[in-house]
């Protein structure tokens, strides 16, 4: 007579803690997330720089947008005007991208044609706008405001690139610091308020805002409107 014996079992063995590197299949599933993210950021930066180089080589400058935040409106600025004899870059705050791009491209065409825009000038007959004004951006704001331009043109240990803010008026023609400004001041923050009155536009014989008759769009990938832009703050 034979008896059936069940399968032989080994008594459980205690697990031993290891301090060496993980081996076996599990090792391939462990990722150094910091290293991976750094590589992805580097790849994105290289692709962005290549796109920026291509756009500037083709058109003379590029336009870089920054999205709005709960406490600050969005803005658009140029990257590349510095190459025209160290001309300041331009920035427009608080306008829709389409209208801001039209403004910057039109002024960029003038700079490429040899005009040099200067701070504390205004224009009463810019197409589609009752008034525009230019003010230099405080250097303390330029570093954070124009990172793409500074990364490209700022010298090591040097100051940030210069910039001019293109200031638009409300529908009634008032600038933000004037009585009667009809919009919230948060709609268009002014980065450097003037300390005294602007010169009268008629006092300038060489108005930097005067457009050449053959002024045309710069050709950047922007859908141009059928008529001139109107001042519409960002929602």
UniProtKB/TrEMBL annotation:
Signal peptide: none annotated. Residues 209-227 have a biased composition (Acidic residues). It comes from the Bacteria. Residues 1-26, 192-235 are annotated as: Disordered. This is DUF4262 domain-containing protein. It holds the Pfam family DUF4262. Coiled coil: none annotated. Residues 193-207 have a biased composition (Basic and acidic residues). InterPro entries: DUF4262 (IPR025358).
